[in-house]
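Researcher: I need the complex structure. Ligand is zinc ion. Inputs:
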Amino acid sequence: MARPRLELVEVSPRDGLQNEPELVSTAVKLGLVDRILAAGFRRLEAGSFVNPKKVPQMADSPDVFAALPARDDAVFIALALNRRGVARAIAAGAKEINYVFCASDGFSVRNNGGTVAETLAVWPDVVADAAAANVRIAAVISTAFGCPFDGEVPVAQVVQVAERIAQAAPFELSLADTIGVASPRDVTARFAAVGAVLPPQVQLRGHFHNTRNTALANAVAAVECGVTIIDGSLAGIGGCPFAPGAAGNVPSEDLVYMFERMGFDTGIDLDAAIAAARSIGEALGKQTPGMVSRAGGFPRAATG
Ligand code: ZN
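Model: Output:
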Protein backbone atom coordinates (compact mmCIF):
# COMPACT_ATOMS: atom_id res chain seq x y z
CA MET A 1 0.00 0.00 0.00
CA ALA A 2 1.26 3.46 -0.86
CA ARG A 3 2.28 5.53 2.11
CA PRO A 4 0.07 8.58 2.79
CA ARG A 5 1.56 11.72 1.33
CA LEU A 6 2.42 14.67 3.55
CA GLU A 7 3.53 17.94 1.98
CA LEU A 8 6.15 19.89 3.88
CA VAL A 9 6.49 23.55 2.91
CA GLU A 10 9.89 25.06 3.67
CA VAL A 11 9.81 28.57 5.13
CA SER A 12 13.42 29.14 6.24
CA PRO A 13 14.30 31.70 3.55
CA ARG A 14 11.39 33.91 4.72
CA ASP A 15 10.06 33.15 8.22
CA GLY A 16 13.33 31.57 9.25
CA LEU A 17 15.56 34.47 8.31
CA GLN A 18 13.30 37.49 8.68
CA ASN A 19 14.19 38.18 12.32
CA GLU A 20 17.91 37.51 11.98
CA PRO A 21 19.64 40.70 13.16
CA GLU A 22 22.60 40.42 10.76
CA LEU A 23 21.62 40.89 7.12
CA VAL A 24 22.01 37.66 5.16
CA SER A 25 23.20 38.25 1.60
CA THR A 26 21.07 37.51 -1.43
CA ALA A 27 23.70 34.99 -2.56
CA VAL A 28 23.49 33.06 0.73
CA LYS A 29 19.68 33.01 0.47
CA LEU A 30 19.87 31.66 -3.07
CA GLY A 31 22.36 29.01 -1.95
CA LEU A 32 19.87 27.99 0.74
CA VAL A 33 17.09 27.75 -1.86
CA ASP A 34 19.29 25.38 -3.90
CA ARG A 35 19.88 23.15 -0.86
CA ILE A 36 16.15 23.16 -0.08
CA LEU A 37 15.35 22.00 -3.62
CA ALA A 38 18.14 19.41 -3.49
CA ALA A 39 16.56 17.93 -0.34
CA GLY A 40 13.31 17.44 -2.23
CA PHE A 41 11.12 20.33 -1.06
CA ARG A 42 8.92 21.55 -3.91
CA ARG A 43 7.14 24.46 -2.23
CA LEU A 44 9.04 27.10 -0.32
CA GLU A 45 8.61 30.64 0.94
CA ALA A 46 11.36 32.56 -0.83
CA GLY A 47 10.72 36.09 0.45
CA SER A 48 8.21 38.69 1.54
CA PHE A 49 6.95 41.94 0.11
CA VAL A 50 6.40 43.96 3.26
CA ASN A 51 7.75 47.30 4.45
CA PRO A 52 11.55 46.98 4.07
CA LYS A 53 12.02 49.46 6.94
CA LYS A 54 10.14 47.11 9.27
CA VAL A 55 11.72 43.92 7.94
CA PRO A 56 15.10 44.91 6.47
CA GLN A 57 16.13 41.25 6.13
CA MET A 58 13.51 40.85 3.37
CA ALA A 59 14.36 44.08 1.51
CA ASP A 60 16.16 42.07 -1.20
CA SER A 61 13.17 39.82 -1.93
CA PRO A 62 12.76 41.28 -5.47
CA ASP A 63 16.42 40.35 -6.13
CA VAL A 64 15.90 36.86 -4.70
CA PHE A 65 12.84 36.29 -6.89
CA ALA A 66 14.64 37.61 -9.97
CA ALA A 67 17.46 35.11 -9.43
CA LEU A 68 15.45 32.00 -8.46
CA PRO A 69 16.18 28.91 -10.53
CA ALA A 70 13.79 28.30 -13.43
CA ARG A 71 12.11 25.16 -12.13
CA ASP A 72 8.76 23.99 -13.44
CA ASP A 73 8.56 21.43 -10.65
CA ALA A 74 8.92 23.92 -7.76
CA VAL A 75 6.74 26.69 -6.35
CA PHE A 76 8.32 29.76 -4.77
CA ILE A 77 5.94 31.56 -2.42
CA ALA A 78 5.95 35.30 -1.75
CA LEU A 79 4.38 36.65 1.43
CA ALA A 80 2.29 39.84 1.43
CA LEU A 81 0.17 41.70 3.97
CA ASN A 82 -1.62 44.21 1.76
CA ARG A 83 -2.52 45.07 -1.81
CA ARG A 84 0.67 46.96 -2.38
CA GLY A 85 2.71 43.94 -1.30
CA VAL A 86 0.70 41.74 -3.66
CA ALA A 87 1.44 44.14 -6.54
CA ARG A 88 5.15 44.10 -5.70
CA ALA A 89 5.20 40.29 -5.46
CA ILE A 90 3.47 39.98 -8.84
CA ALA A 91 5.91 42.49 -10.37
CA ALA A 92 8.80 40.41 -8.98
CA GLY A 93 7.49 37.36 -10.80
CA ALA A 94 5.92 35.42 -7.91
CA LYS A 95 3.42 32.77 -9.02
CA GLU A 96 2.05 32.05 -5.56
CA ILE A 97 1.31 34.43 -2.70
CA ASN A 98 0.69 33.78 0.98
CA TYR A 99 -1.63 36.56 2.07
CA VAL A 100 -1.61 37.04 5.81
CA PHE A 101 -4.52 37.98 8.07
CA CYS A 102 -4.57 37.99 11.85
CA ALA A 103 -7.16 36.45 14.15
CA SER A 104 -6.70 39.27 16.69
CA ASP A 105 -6.91 43.05 16.35
CA GLY A 106 -3.91 43.71 18.62
CA PHE A 107 -1.54 41.93 16.26
CA SER A 108 -3.40 42.96 13.11
CA VAL A 109 -3.10 46.68 13.83
CA ARG A 110 0.63 46.41 14.52
CA ASN A 111 1.59 43.85 11.87
CA ASN A 112 -0.92 44.42 9.06
CA GLY A 113 -1.64 48.12 9.54
CA GLY A 114 -5.36 47.76 10.28
CA THR A 115 -7.97 45.90 12.29
CA VAL A 116 -9.01 42.40 11.25
CA ALA A 117 -12.22 43.85 9.76
CA GLU A 118 -10.28 46.49 7.83
CA THR A 119 -7.90 43.96 6.34
CA LEU A 120 -10.77 41.60 5.43
CA ALA A 121 -12.52 44.46 3.59
CA VAL A 122 -9.80 44.57 0.90
CA TRP A 123 -9.58 40.78 0.49
CA PRO A 124 -11.90 40.55 -2.55
CA ASP A 125 -9.70 43.14 -4.30
CA VAL A 126 -6.57 41.19 -3.40
CA VAL A 127 -8.06 37.99 -4.81
CA ALA A 128 -9.06 39.85 -7.99
CA ASP A 129 -5.55 41.33 -8.37
CA ALA A 130 -3.98 37.89 -8.04
CA ALA A 131 -6.46 36.29 -10.44
CA ALA A 132 -5.84 39.00 -13.05
CA ALA A 133 -2.12 38.21 -12.88
CA ASN A 134 -2.73 34.44 -12.95
CA VAL A 135 -1.15 34.09 -9.50
CA ARG A 136 -2.36 31.52 -6.94
CA ILE A 137 -3.30 32.96 -3.58
CA ALA A 138 -3.27 31.20 -0.23
CA ALA A 139 -4.54 32.79 2.96
CA VAL A 140 -2.92 32.60 6.37
CA ILE A 141 -4.56 33.36 9.71
CA SER A 142 -1.76 34.35 12.04
CA THR A 143 -2.17 34.52 15.84
CA ALA A 144 -4.81 31.79 15.39
CA PHE A 145 -3.83 30.24 18.74
CA GLY A 146 -2.97 33.29 20.81
CA CYS A 147 -1.91 36.91 20.46
CA PRO A 148 1.02 38.69 22.12
CA PHE A 149 -1.20 41.74 22.67
CA ASP A 150 -4.76 40.42 23.10
CA GLY A 151 -3.95 37.12 24.83
CA GLU A 152 -6.42 34.28 24.28
CA VAL A 153 -7.95 33.97 20.81
CA PRO A 154 -11.23 32.02 21.01
CA VAL A 155 -12.01 29.33 18.43
CA ALA A 156 -15.13 31.25 17.34
CA GLN A 157 -13.00 34.27 16.47
CA VAL A 158 -10.75 32.17 14.20
CA VAL A 159 -13.79 30.59 12.55
CA GLN A 160 -15.30 34.03 11.90
CA VAL A 161 -12.15 35.19 10.10
CA ALA A 162 -11.98 31.90 8.15
CA GLU A 163 -15.59 32.29 7.01
CA ARG A 164 -14.91 35.79 5.71
CA ILE A 165 -11.77 34.63 3.91
CA ALA A 166 -13.68 31.70 2.38
CA GLN A 167 -16.13 34.08 0.69
CA ALA A 168 -13.40 34.78 -1.88
CA ALA A 169 -12.06 31.25 -1.71
CA PRO A 170 -8.30 30.88 -1.70
CA PHE A 171 -6.95 27.46 -2.74
CA GLU A 172 -5.49 27.00 0.71
CA LEU A 173 -5.92 28.32 4.25
CA SER A 174 -3.22 28.12 6.86
CA LEU A 175 -3.65 28.45 10.61
CA ALA A 176 -0.48 29.88 12.14
CA ASP A 177 0.70 29.66 15.72
CA THR A 178 2.71 32.84 15.26
CA ILE A 179 4.00 33.05 18.83
CA GLY A 180 4.19 29.33 19.62
CA VAL A 181 1.58 29.03 22.35
CA ALA A 182 -0.65 26.23 21.02
CA SER A 183 -1.20 22.82 22.56
CA PRO A 184 -2.28 19.80 20.47
CA ARG A 185 -5.87 20.11 21.69
CA ASP A 186 -5.98 23.76 20.58
CA VAL A 187 -4.84 22.55 17.16
CA THR A 188 -7.51 19.88 16.92
CA ALA A 189 -10.25 22.28 18.04
CA ARG A 190 -9.33 25.02 15.57
CA PHE A 191 -8.69 22.88 12.51
CA ALA A 192 -11.88 20.91 13.07
CA ALA A 193 -13.96 24.07 13.51
CA VAL A 194 -12.39 25.90 10.56
CA GLY A 195 -12.51 22.83 8.31
CA ALA A 196 -16.24 22.56 8.97
CA VAL A 197 -16.98 26.01 7.50
CA LEU A 198 -14.65 25.93 4.47
CA PRO A 199 -15.64 24.80 0.98
CA PRO A 200 -14.15 21.32 0.45
CA GLN A 201 -11.71 22.46 -2.25
CA VAL A 202 -9.84 24.73 0.21
CA GLN A 203 -6.91 22.74 1.57
CA LEU A 204 -5.69 23.26 5.13
CA ARG A 205 -2.13 23.96 6.14
CA GLY A 206 -0.52 24.17 9.58
CA HIS A 207 2.23 26.57 10.64
CA PHE A 208 3.79 26.00 14.05
CA HIS A 209 6.50 27.68 16.06
CA ASN A 210 8.41 25.78 18.70
CA THR A 211 8.63 28.71 21.12
CA ARG A 212 7.33 26.54 23.98
CA ASN A 213 8.45 23.14 22.67
CA THR A 214 4.97 22.08 21.53
CA ALA A 215 5.42 22.35 17.76
CA LEU A 216 6.05 18.70 16.87
CA ALA A 217 3.11 17.60 18.99
CA ASN A 218 0.98 20.27 17.32
CA ALA A 219 2.04 19.10 13.85
CA VAL A 220 0.96 15.54 14.71
CA ALA A 221 -2.37 16.83 16.04
CA ALA A 222 -2.95 18.74 12.80
CA VAL A 223 -2.13 15.76 10.60
CA GLU A 224 -4.31 13.48 12.71
CA CYS A 225 -7.28 15.74 12.05
CA GLY A 226 -6.72 15.65 8.31
CA VAL A 227 -4.26 18.45 7.54
CA THR A 228 -1.90 17.33 4.75
CA ILE A 229 0.39 20.36 4.49
CA ILE A 230 2.75 21.45 7.28
CA ASP A 231 5.28 24.29 7.30
CA GLY A 232 8.76 23.90 8.69
CA SER A 233 12.04 25.78 8.76
CA LEU A 234 15.32 23.92 8.34
CA ALA A 235 17.46 24.00 11.50
CA GLY A 236 14.46 25.44 13.36
CA ILE A 237 15.44 29.02 12.67
CA GLY A 238 12.85 31.79 12.90
CA GLY A 239 12.90 33.10 16.45
CA CYS A 240 9.85 34.87 17.78
CA PRO A 241 10.31 38.64 18.15
CA PHE A 242 7.94 38.54 21.15
CA ALA A 243 10.00 35.92 22.97
CA PRO A 244 13.66 36.90 22.66
CA GLY A 245 15.97 33.90 22.80
CA ALA A 246 13.19 31.40 22.09
CA ALA A 247 13.36 28.57 19.57
CA GLY A 248 12.05 29.24 16.07
CA ASN A 249 9.78 27.49 13.59
CA VAL A 250 9.38 23.76 13.93
CA PRO A 251 12.57 22.31 12.38
CA SER A 252 11.84 20.77 8.97
CA GLU A 253 14.33 17.95 9.35
CA ASP A 254 12.72 17.00 12.68
CA LEU A 255 9.35 16.89 10.87
CA VAL A 256 10.83 14.74 8.11
CA TYR A 257 12.35 12.29 10.60
CA MET A 258 9.20 11.98 12.69
CA PHE A 259 6.63 11.76 9.91
CA GLU A 260 8.69 9.33 7.80
CA ARG A 261 9.05 7.10 10.89
CA MET A 262 5.27 7.38 11.31
CA GLY A 263 4.85 6.00 7.79
CA PHE A 264 4.23 9.18 5.79
CA ASP A 265 5.84 9.95 2.46
CA THR A 266 7.23 13.49 2.63
CA GLY A 267 9.32 13.22 -0.53
CA ILE A 268 12.26 14.68 1.39
CA ASP A 269 15.75 13.17 1.63
CA LEU A 270 16.53 13.35 5.35
CA ASP A 271 20.30 13.34 4.91
CA ALA A 272 20.10 16.23 2.44
CA ALA A 273 17.74 18.11 4.78
CA ILE A 274 20.19 17.61 7.66
CA ALA A 275 23.05 18.87 5.47
CA ALA A 276 21.00 21.93 4.52
CA ALA A 277 20.12 22.57 8.18
CA ARG A 278 23.77 22.34 9.20
CA SER A 279 24.76 24.75 6.44
CA ILE A 280 22.31 27.29 7.88
CA GLY A 281 23.97 27.07 11.29
CA GLU A 282 27.35 27.59 9.62
CA ALA A 283 26.09 30.54 7.54
CA LEU A 284 24.58 32.22 10.61
CA GLY A 285 27.52 31.29 12.81
CA LYS A 286 25.42 29.93 15.62
CA GLN A 287 23.92 26.85 17.21
CA THR A 288 20.45 26.32 15.77
CA PRO A 289 17.55 24.73 17.67
CA GLY A 290 16.84 21.69 15.46
CA MET A 291 17.51 18.33 17.16
CA VAL A 292 17.78 15.84 14.28
CA SER A 293 20.51 17.87 12.57
CA ARG A 294 22.58 17.32 15.72
CA ALA A 295 21.72 13.69 16.40
CA GLY A 296 21.46 12.46 12.81
CA GLY A 297 18.81 10.08 11.48
CA PHE A 298 17.93 6.57 12.67
CA PRO A 299 21.17 4.65 13.20
CA ARG A 300 22.07 2.22 10.46
CA ALA A 301 22.83 -1.32 11.54
CA ALA A 302 26.53 -2.02 11.83
CA THR A 303 27.77 -4.30 9.06
CA GLY A 304 30.60 -6.82 9.33
ZN1 ZN B 1 5.77 31.95 11.43
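Model: Summary of the prediction. The mean pLDDT is 96.
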